[in-house]
Amino acid sequence: MVVEGVEVSTAHWIGGERVGGARTFDDVSPIDERVVATVARGDDAAVNEAVGAARHAFTTWGGTSPKERAEVLHRIADGVEARVPQLAAVETTDNGSLLRSMRSSVMPRVARNFRAFADGLLRLEGSADTAIDGHAERISWDPAGVTAVITPWNAPLMLATWRIAPALAAGNTVVAKPPEWAPLTASLLADIAHDAGLPDGAFNVVQGIGEEAGAALVAHPDVDRVAFTGSVPTGRLVAAAAAGNLTPVSLELGGKSPFIVFADADLDAAVRQAVNQFDNAGQVCLAGTRLLVERSIYDAFIERFVAAIDAIVQGDPRDEGTDIGPLITREHFERVDGFVRRAVAAGARALVGGMPNDDLGGLFYRPTLFGDVPDAAEGADAAEILTQEVFGPVLTAQPFDGEEQAIALANGTDFGLAAIVYTGDDRRAERVGARLVAGTVWVNCFFVRDLDAPFGGSRNSGIGREGGVWSFDFYADVKNVTTAPWARPTQAQPTQEGAGDG
Questions:
Q1: Does domain 258-443 have CATH number 3.40.309.10?
Q2: How many percent of the chain have pLDDT more than 90?
Q3: Which of 63, 76, 312, 449 has its CA 20 to 30 A from that of 203?
Q4: Strand partners, 2
């Protein structure tokens, strides 16, 4: 099938071969809601075949040296870099993300994922070796087996390779189930990995619906690791299914991140970054969707923020001048609109937006900012807009008085994925950052990511940390071999009786 001039297979990729099936589903582009591909719909049989292929390939791939694995991962990165324009075009059509971002940052980050974990693998050997009471302790990261990877649609290839790359680097084999709302670039990755010399069966792709192929994969008894990125409700189902086999899980789930602006902050910089939280139409788990602004500058901040929104261009994500594209599906569009309508009905005031973009139609929703939102203490249904993940271009603004209230508001959800703090006081940044419940805190910046740093969430935002050595701690079986001090054995003296033998 040809998508944006790129030949894309919509079959499964299992054991180094394309495998079709009688059942299919339609892949719809959010840009214009047209069907762009008809994709294989995997079931238990496809999952069994893929896991079997991965288990067979593990006997080979798991036995290769770290140097050999790193070389293959670097070749995969080379292949990604050579195909950035094609990958970007396909993914933009598939999920509505900005084409210019796909080209300039997202697809290059896919290549970086492979390079970072290839290089990190080579740094592991000997890095944790130690000694105790004269006994040497040698730490190794042994391949664990077959890894199941299930990732979401908002950045499907980048988020998938954040898990696929360290799993392969660790010596595991992988079965990936791409998101049914944006499945195509995973198929292209299979081609790239094959061309790079990855052994057949080391990487497999089973297309399909989450409740079918995804559910069968995470519950499969021959899967040794499960890595999932998605919603909290689905994460609970994944964890429960994996628990039946005692399969270790890594869960990156939702977020409702606070964006805290103190009066001593650079106001213009804070406003610019706050407006950036509408990136990808707000379909970003890390987005700081709760603007918490110190009361003395609240009005000035809101005035500048609303003016900045007026300059945002919404439209076709393939156009270079577009800043915000569409929501992913009609189903998700209705979900976002439902949040907005319930907030308005409960007394929240939309300072800007608050409705679909009727000028564009389709799945385009206007960037929205709510103020004067009644909170849970007032018994208002509108409080859900302050505490639940909308995953759309919908932000809230609340004033606060002093650090204590800012921290209380920031920590006032069941999530803990990220937080953003803008302040001109480094001591305040340290104090506040230490008390925020979040896996990552950015001070006077956003989305600055060192791939060797730990990443993950607290509370309902997930289980575990990945990145750098933290990824290898999950995807590998960490082993400690403790050896007593070596001493040369005493040479046994021949007995008198045996001295003359022979």
A1: yes
A2: 89
A3: 449
A4: 7
Catalytic residue, from 49, 180, 285, 294: name it.
Answer: 285
Active-site position among 252, 294, 389, 466: 252
Q: How many CB atoms lie within 10 A of CB 437?
A: 20
Selection from 226, 217, 168, 216 nearest residue 192 by Cα: 168
- DSSP E strands: which ranges in 262-342? 290-294
Asked if residue 176 has pLDDT above 50, the reply is yes
Residue 201 CB partners (closer than 8 Å, separation 6+): 14, 15, 16, 53, 54, 56, 57, 173
* Residue range 255-272, pLDDT digits in tens: 999 999 999 999 999 999
| Residue with tokens 């140097």, as numbered in its chain | 67
Q: What is the mean pLDDT of residues 365-385?
A: 79
Residue 211 annotated to the active site: no
Could you tell me the residue ranges of all domains in the chain? 2-253+457-483, 258-443
The amino acid that residue 82 corresponds to is A
Give the largest CA-CA distance in the chain. Answer: 107
The domain over range 2-253+457-483 is classified in CATH as 3.40.47.10: no
| Amino acid in the structure at residue 444 | N
The dihedral over CA atoms of 142, 144, 146, 147, expressed in degrees to the nearest 10, equals -100
Whole-Å CA distances, 80 to 16, 26, 37, 110, 196 = 18, 26, 22, 7, 10
